[in-house]
Design goal:
single chain; globular; alpha+beta
């Protein structure tokens, strides 16, 4: 009788540990800056209306060459004013999307910032 009770207690303990480990590995989203706040900040709080770049068949080879994979979306929203563009993109990290903001001027990245980080740490 003692052995059965011990096995049951041990089983409960393992389940508790497993549940505890899994709950501590819950996805911890960290927002460093909201995407629209990044856009506003990039245009001195006066952003233009957003535009859309449609990912056409002719753009796909260039995107693949840069990223090493397909972008996986049909269109990308961006903002443009005075020769500067701002892009907010999502890229899969190890398992989850990471939202990144880019400021491009004169075909050069002027600024890059991780806006939302969704990966587990550790």
């Amino acid at each position: 009788m003692h052995i059965k009770k011990f096995k049951l207690t041990l089983t409960k303990l393992f389940l508790f540990i497993i549940i505890g480990v899994n709950s501590s590995a819950v996805l911890a989203e960290q927002t460093y800056q909201k995407p629209l706040d990044f856009v506003k900040e990039s245009f001195s709080l006066n952003p233009p209306k957003s535009k859309v770049l449609w990912i056409t068949k002719s753009l796909k080879p260039s995107i693949y060459e840069i990223l090493g994979h397909d972008l996986g979306v049909l269109r990308v929203r961006y903002w443009a004013k005075d020769g500067q563009t701002v892009w907010v993109l999502n890229e899969i990290g190890k398992q989850h999307p990471i939202t990144v903001g880019f400021v491009v001027k004169e075909n050069k990245i002027q600024r890059l910032k991780v806006l939302i980080f969704r990966e587990n740490r550790g």
